[in-house]
Amino acid sequence: MNFKPLYDRVLIERTKASNKTDGGIIIPDNAKEKPMEGKVVALGKGSRNENGSINPIEVSLGDRVLFSKYSGTEIKIDGKNYMIMKESDLLGIYINN
């Protein structure tokens, strides 16, 4: 991939939505909600503070993260859908990948 986010932005690949509920009911495509978690595939260097030095990003490549439902911007790179958002829009990192 030839894409690098700027500053404190993170590029996320959403996880696939499940076709079934926990009870085994099959969900049609038009009723599925988009998952609110994904994997970090690219990230910027970090944000600059008042002194001009860079605050590094806390997430790493490959981290599984949780984000809010309406955060970020959907983009398409090389025919694949991704989300780009600021690191501050992330809600957390799953510890056990």
Structural summary, described in words:
With 97 residues, this protein is mostly beta strands. The protein has a single domain (9-93), classed as Roll (10 Kd Chaperonin, Protein Cpn10, Chain O), CATH 2.30.33.40. The chain is built from no helices and eight strands. It has a six-stranded antiparallel beta sheet with strand order 6-7-1-2-5-8, with no helix packed on it. Strands 3-4 form a two-stranded antiparallel ribbon. It is elongated, with a radius of gyration of 15 Å.
Measured on Cα atoms, how large is the radius of gyration?
15 Å
Main sheet: which strands, in order across?
Answer: 6-7-1-2-5-8
What amount of the residues lies in strands?
A: 35-45%
Q: So how many helices?
A: 0
Q: What is the architecture at the second tier of CATH? A: Roll
Outline of the structure:
With 97 residues, this protein is an all-beta fold.
Supply the key terms.
97 residues; mainly beta; 10 Kd Chaperonin, Protein Cpn10, Chain O; 6-stranded antiparallel beta sheet; two-stranded antiparallel ribbon; elongated
Mind sketching the topology for me?
Blueprint: E1 9-14, E2 37-43, E3 46-48, E4 54-56, E5 64-67, E6 73-77, E7 80-86, E8 90-93
Antiparallel strand pairs: 1-2, 1-7, 2-5, 3-4, 5-8, 6-7
